[in-house]
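Sequence only, no structure available. Ideas?
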Amino acid sequence: MTFFIVMFVLLMQFLWKYIDDLVGKGLDWTIISELLLYASAGLVPMALPLSTLLASLMMLGNLGENNELLAMKSAGISLPRIMLPLIVITVAISGGAFFFSNNVLPYTNLKIASLLYDVKQQRPELQLKEGVFYNGIDGLSVKIGEKNHNTNLLKRIMIYDHRANDGNIAVTLADSGYMRVTTDERHMVVTLYDGYTYEEIKEGREPARTKDKKLPARQTHFKEQTFIHELKGFGLQRTDEDLFKNNFQVMNLAQLEVAQDSLSNELLTRNEAFKNNLVGNILLRNTYRLPQDTVAKTATYQLPADSLYSQLSNEQKLRAIERALVNARSAKSYISTTSDEINYKAKYIARHNIEWHRKFALSFACFVFFFIGAPLGAIIRKGGLGMPVVISVLFFILYYVIAITGEKFVRELVWHPSFGMWISSVILLPLGAFLSYKATTDSVILNADWYFNTFKKIFSFKAKRKQKEILS
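Reply:
I predicted one. C-alpha cells follow.
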C-alpha cells in the first residue's frame, strides 16, 4: 500500500515537471499511457526506500499502539527476534531493487528517453487564435478574424503563402471557411468561401522587385476553393532508440564498466598527447633550428645561452620579446582549451561512476531505512498515516538532500564517487543502529507522552513549591 502511495506522489511530480511538453500536442492516450508506464518503472528505485521506511514505521507503530508489541515482549520475545522476519524480507526487497536497477531500469530509461525526445519534438496542435497570425504550419501564415466554437466556422481569413520562399508575393482573403486536419495528421484540408487570391508573377529570371521596378500581379476571385496542404512534424515521429544507447543512464553494470575503461584510456591518451604537444611544440618551439650533424646527431655550433640575449641588438631584443609573448599567449590558450576538454571528459567519466554506485546505493537505502523506521515505530507507538508519514517524509528529505549534495560534489570532481554516493547511507546507518539500540532497551526518547508527563510533573512541582512559599 505504501509503495503505491509513494509511486503516485512521485508520478505526479513527474507530470508537473513535463506538463509543458505534454499539453496541447494532441497526444493519443496510448502514448500518454506508455509514457506513464516507463516513468513509473523509472521511479521504482526511489520509491522502494521511502515505502520501506513508511511501511516499517506504520507496522511497528500499530503493534506498539495496540500493545501487541508489549505482549510479545512479555512472552519473552525480544525486539530483534520480532524484527528478524522483517529483516529477511527487507534483504529480499533490497536484492530485488538491485536486480531491477541493473536489468529493468536501463531498458525503461532508454524507452522513456526516446519517447520524451519524440514528444518534445512534436509540434503543438493546430490552434488558431482570433486576430493573431499563426506560423506553425510550414509555408503558410494564417490569420482569422472570428471563430465559431460550435461549428468551427472561421471568418475573415487571411492566408500568406510562403512556400516559394520569395516573401509575401501570394495572399488569399476569404469571407469564411473551414480548416481541418486529417486523422493521420499528415494533411490539412482548407475550404474557403467567397474570396480573392492576389499573386505577384515573376517574368523569367528577372530580379525581385525593387523601388524602381514592380512585378505584374494576378487577381483571382472564387466562390468556393478547397486545397490540401501537407503537414510536417504534427504527428508523433518515433526516433531510432540506438541514438540513446550510449547514454550512461541506459547501461547496466557490465556496460558501465566497459564504458568507464574506454573513457579512462581515452582520457589518459589525451593527457599524454597534451604533455608531449605542450613541451615539444610550444614550450621548446624554435623557428630557427640549429643545423645538426646527421651522423652524430649533435649541434654543430654551441650558443652561449647565459649571454645570448645580451649580445642581441635592441631591434633583435624587441623581436625576441615579441616572439616570446606570442609563444606564451599560444601556450596559455592551448592549456586553457585542453583543460576544459579534459575536465569535460573527467566529468563524463564521473557520471558513469555515479550511475554505477547509484544502483547499489539506492538498493542499500531500503535496508538503511528499515532500521530507521522499525525502531522508530516501536518507540513512538503510533500507527496509521499520520505521524508515520510526517516522520518518513522528514527522514527521506534528509536522505535526499545529503544524496543530492554528494552527487553534485562528485559531478564537479570535488569528491570521489565512492564517498559522495554513499555519504547519505554512511550518515543514516549509525542513526538506525542507535534507534535500534534504544528500541531494544525500551527507551522513551521519542515518546511524546513521556515528555508531556515530565513537563507536567516539573510544572506541578514548581506550583507546589510556590504555594508552600506563599503559605510559609
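Residues 314-380 form the longest helix (67 residues).
Hope that gets you unstuck.
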